[in-house]
Amino acid sequence: MQQSKGGWPGENIRKAGSGGRTDEKHRLLRQYFGYDEFRTGQEELIDSLLAGRDVLGIMPTGAGKSLCYQIPALIKEGITLVISPLISLMKDQVGALNEAGIHAAYLNSSLTPGQYQKALAYAAAGRYKLIYVAPERLLTEEFLRFACGARIAMVAVDEAHCVSQWGQDFRPSYLKIPDFIRRLPVRPVVGAFTATATAEVRDDIVRLLALIRPGVLTTGFDRPNLYFAVQSPADPYRAAVEFLENHPKDSGIIYCLTRKGVEEVCANLIRDGFSATRYHAGLSDEERRRNQDDFIYDRCRIMVATNAFGMGIDKSDVRFVLHYNMPKNIESYYQEAGRAGRDGEPADCLLFYRPQDVVTNRLFIENNRDNEELDPAARQEVMERDQQRLRRMVGYCYTEGCLREYLLAYFGEEAAGPCHNCSGCDSGMEPADVTREAQAVLTAAAYCGGRYGAGVLADTVRGARTEKIRRFGMDQCPSYGALSSLTADRIRRIITGLQSREYLMVTNDRYSLIGPGPKASAVLSGQEKVSMRLPREETRPRKAKTKKASGALGEADSSMFERLRALRMEIAREEGVPPYIVFSDKTLAHMCIVRPRNEEEMLSVSGVGAYKYEKYGEQFLACIRQAQERADEK
Q: pTM of the full predicted structure?
């Protein structure tokens, strides 16, 4: 476990004694969640909250942040309020809690006035231990009246990075949280939780939420089970199809920057026989809900979506996340990529990069209307910070080394060395002097006066004999054909590398026109050499090195696994819940290994708690017995 090292408000968490509550928290962990041990960092945060101490927990997606406030909520006398930014996030977590036998509710705009009044009445009567609420609702007269009359034992702020202007999802409504807490008759203990937070964001969380001498803990940002890769394919759709064909049974998400992109990619995938659906803000609420359910309930294998999809979607068996376009910052990318492999099993995170993505993201930043309630100076400051984060995202796409090292360094964490589980480590990169190649490209950029894009520059130095090159007069350029011996991909890599170092500059024009940058003259005059790390040879995208749990099973166990999955799907359909809510793939795989014969052995399976055994245990035991009998007959 890596703990924070100072430099911002808060103190490192040391193990806090919780007296006789130790047995209780472990009992609850086993009974409701089906686990024998806490994950790294969970117990420390739980102990601090039980001791009445504010906390800030920074844990990557899939590390179990919600458990850190859910277990204290079950132990503490009174109600825990969970402040959450999205309706989908609330619904998913409340659904999972109720399925586990824990009474919880959410209060948001998806409820009718009658449903909202009923939920408030139940809450006031003490029916719920956890209540999820949107930040916009906190200071409404009706909710304040309820909160001030109830016993609020704890306030948990989920997605706490939303409070900071440095955060990728800044929500001005989060700034109302401290005012709400001050209005309560008795200040509750406050816990803040997030998956992605740079040092500036951590500072802001502690300060803006007015946390009192908080225990601060970060478990580290690394997700070792994720394989990271960056590509710049000439034909992104063809590359995506090739990737999907290598993942024929896997469930995954494809993120596009625009609604138009979502529509095109999804339509093409369906045309080509893939099981796909779509999600973006331009669809009706009903269609978004239906499509989201189709993905969560495994009726559709692939979700094509904008960044409007995913937060709060706790689908544990997502085996890949493919970014069809580059996101606007590393926080967003890491959060979205982190939706793969939440069960701890290997998963792939592939990012396609094109210079046009930079232009599109700049336009999004400049036209952002989410922060209109800020004054002009604050809006300008947020925009400049967004532009700065965009530059760091571009740097990730251009980095010549280990991608995991780059990501961890961004969040202030030092990697032990190259991970050997990313495209940067696998690509066989070697240093190369590309001064001559750079001079050829920069000569072409200067010759065309910044009127054309990267494709024209590449075709010029390759000596392409196309009608466009002749029409533009680029066949008269002094460096025309100078790099005819190089592959198109190597030239493209050199051009993108020159952009990242500001030897070339991309205009803000919608067509991504390229011209010489401020550092070009030194290279053209021979005063400066250019070196890059380039691949020895091209390598196609690969799947993660290690197998997922179900893939490591023997033939008999694999057959049993498929039977258990079919039973899980049948139960999920009957109860109207996503299959992973019944049991995760990891739990089913563990059943195949343990092959439990009775209640005691079934309860030893990771992810099977007393409540779930009572609901489903006998059905799964019967299925295991039948599979075993058929295997014995063979």
A: 0.67
